[in-house]
Amino acid sequence: MESFHKLILFLFLSIAGIFSCNQVKEKRVKPNIVFIFIDDMGWKDVGFMGSEYYETPHIDQLAKKGMVFTQAYANAANCAPTRACLLSGQYSARHGVNTVARPDRGDPEDRRLIPIPNSRTVPLEHVMISEALKPAGYRSAAIGKWNVGNSPEKQGFDLGIPGSGFQGHFNEEGEYLTDHLTEKAVKFIKENNPQKTGNPFFLYLAHYAVHTPIQAKDSLVQKYQEKQGTPYHNNSTYAAMIESVDQSVAKINGILEELGLVENTLLVFFSDNGGHGTYTSQKPLRGGKGMFYEGGIREPMFAYWPGKIKAGTVCQEPVIGIDFYPTFLELSGVEKPIGYVLDGRSIVPLLNGEKTLNREALFWHFPAYLQSYEGMKKESRDTLFRSRPVSVIRKGDWKLLQFHEEWVLDGGRENLMENNAVELYNLATDIGETKNLSAVETDKRDELLDDLINWQEEIDAPIPSEANPKYVAKGKGK
Ligand SMILES: [Ca+2]
């Protein structure tokens, strides 16, 4: 009799075990995704990347309990294209959002080429990540800055909450935009708690911080006014803006903890381009927002998912904004939309502890002009522009920049030793891009150039090639 009871108990426990295992499995197949996207935050603008002035204790804590990426790249050096690429999973050449607003910034007399017309909108036929996640039942919200035309709702988000009613970072009631968006995000998480809805959620929280205008809450600014800055970080208002971002991350993680969701939620922290050179510095990287040197495109990033991503890990593999789309698809178990091209790679193997994706190369293409401004002139290629039309390849430790003005107008490949059309850097030994090796490492230069030109042809990247009749040769401000 006793053994019969034991048998029944054993069977009961087995069935319960199988059931609960399946539940765990089922849950893990479709994790919640929280993507926290900061605007214009530079590579060194957080404690976990080494700032000794800005204070980001909550961000640092999560970074430490997750995986830090030291070579995470934005797809562009400014807002709109980087967002368009990330949300569509495609390089700029496919959707045409190459820059912010006009492609012909700066003085017409200083531009040697006619830039490629820019699109301000990702066309609706491009399937954004929010749409692609729908078959897996995701409830999704885009909260904050959008910047890619149409509306989030037209691109598959269930909810879009812009930062309307704010002039700069405050509204008439004195509410601070970062706090406002955080509250909306917390509300979304509460209302879409999968334990109640049965559906996972995808939160795309795109802060307007720490973009200009540099404005912060007085209560935080004072603390930094009293604190000794460093040669590179010393703007008290900018520091206070960053601290508000830190508080936002703390609140988002706080609600996930309160609701018991952290173990089934991937939280990613990322920025859209380099920091603004007037207010912060990416040193030892060269340059900042608007440039295709590392300071303009390398971003602070961590991924946090307790129990899934090993705590205290650092990933040095280069990753890029277009990788999030296939990453989220893989985690949610959804197939890529039929016939849709994705240019990125899933970083799930990296999150699982693998060291490399064995990817051939990363690319950037910028067929436009971005004028310079005070604070950035020292580190750009010339003092008039942060960027002139340029294409870039990163392959292994090497990075090559191809400057289209010299390429198109000064004899291209045949004249490389004289025309200064390419720059080549070894990032392993020269992270600050100080030594142009294009005239020395000619084999490596040619290899990267071949790859870059092949890629341009494959993706049909539009190359500015028409000389600007308004151009006046008066030196390039070098
Ligand atoms: Ca930006």
Task: Write up what this structure looks like.
The protein contains 15 helices and 17 strands. It is of the alpha/beta class and 478 residues long. Helix 6 runs parallel beside helix 9 and helix 8 packs across helix 9. The radius of gyration is 24 Å and the shape is globular. About 3% of the residues have low confidence. Bound molecules: calcium ion (CA). The site of calcium ion has 7 residues, from loops.
Radius of gyration, CA atoms, in whole angstroms: 24 Å
**CATH superfamily descriptor of the largest domain:** Alkaline Phosphatase, subunit A
Going by CATH, the architecture of the largest domain would be: 3-Layer(aba) Sandwich
Number of domains: 2
Instruction: Give the assembly state of these chains.
Output: single chain
Helix percentage range:
25-40%
From the spread of the alpha carbons, the general shape counts as globular
CATH topology of the largest domain: Alkaline Phosphatase, subunit A
CATH class of the largest domain: Alpha Beta
Ligands bound, unique: calcium ion
Content-based structural category: alpha/beta
**Total of DSSP H or I helical runs spanning 4+ residues:** 15
Number of strands: 17
Tell me the span between the first and last alpha carbons: 94 Å
Low-confidence stretches: 16-28
The fraction of residues in strands falls at 15-25%
State mean pLDDT (0 to 100 scale). 94
Describe the main β-sheet briefly: 9 strands, mixed
